[in-house]
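Bumping with the actual sequence this time:
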Amino acid sequence: MTDRRIAVVGGGILGLAVARRLTQVLPGAQITVLEKEQDLATHQTGRNSGVVHAGLYYQPGSLKAQLCRRGVGMLKEFCAEHSVPYQEVGKLVVALHRDELGRLGDIADRAELNGVPDLRMVDGGGITDIEPHAVGVAALHSPHTAIVDFVAAAEAMASEILAAGGIVRRGFCVRSVERAGERVRIAGGHEQLEFDQLIVCAGLHSDIVARLAGDGDDPRIIPFRGEYYRLRDDRASLVKGLIYPVPDPRYPFLGVHLTRRFDGRVDLGPNAVLALAREGYRWRDVRAGEVREILAWPGFRALARRHWRTGVKELAGSLSKRLFVREARRYVPALSHRDVVPAPAGVRAQAVARDGSLVDDFRINRLGPVVAIRNAPSSGATSSLAIAEHVCDQLLDRRGP
């Protein structure tokens, strides 16, 4: 259909990847991106660690595993075509003690099943060969794990959309969505727009927009702030690439790690503390209505009862610079709290089910003319181009993963 009109809500890297894909598969359609901010990629895309994940941790056969592995290759090719900074600096997942070796071996097995290339296990000496200031008894080395400028990638996608005749509307905050038969009416401010189809890529607000379009309330987005410190420039040489702990399998968070960024700076973090607003990047960012929504969700209350001890530990690290840096010093002992300065925080849109479980896999729902991405946390940015393929296949009733 050359006269089809499709809206994409969300101007982060995922929404832009979807809109770009639509201009490719439906060259005669009118594709419109609706972004509530004046700038693109200002939230999760612009405030994450900048890591292109290789697919080490994900359940083999899951949507996340499939789309991450495909997405890595697509993103690398896209960045080369558009001169976007992309560097394969490599990643070490470090076991500090022998009791972590079993979990490290499980990660290696998963990664191999997911098709992550050129993995190898190294001992303590092998760790220092790769990262001279790091310590551990063993580590899994992923040499092709990369870092990228995700904002530059998102802006390049927006340029392609505009060049193909698409529209990128900034400052358009969706207030209501009405499904009228096979059409969708979207209101924002004093304006109402009508489309044939809608794709929701609203990140931290994805569940709200999906509910406006008629979807259910499960899962609900719970915002977790990830705080960072940054090494002073004269200490950035302590880290050459990416140094990660062996993660706790009970949580989707990977723990405080050390990350070299595309511009040469090195960040420590993130932790994971409950944010008091969906865009709560600081402790003083509080929205009372959003806090009440969080507390009212049965899934959050179940989550808090189950994992309150971990929550207290994360809170302590948030309030104490020394405790925060102490976590990173376990892997790079030369670090000191005097070596770091505060860095911008991010907020992760974590979907929590009604029973209190953390939704790990990507969650994409189809509602007639609406496709809603309900959960796309890490590795969502890495997988964005592959998710876009998958979502467009759903929208066009094509067969996908």
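The tokens above came from a reply further down the thread. Residues 298-319 form the longest helix (22 residues).
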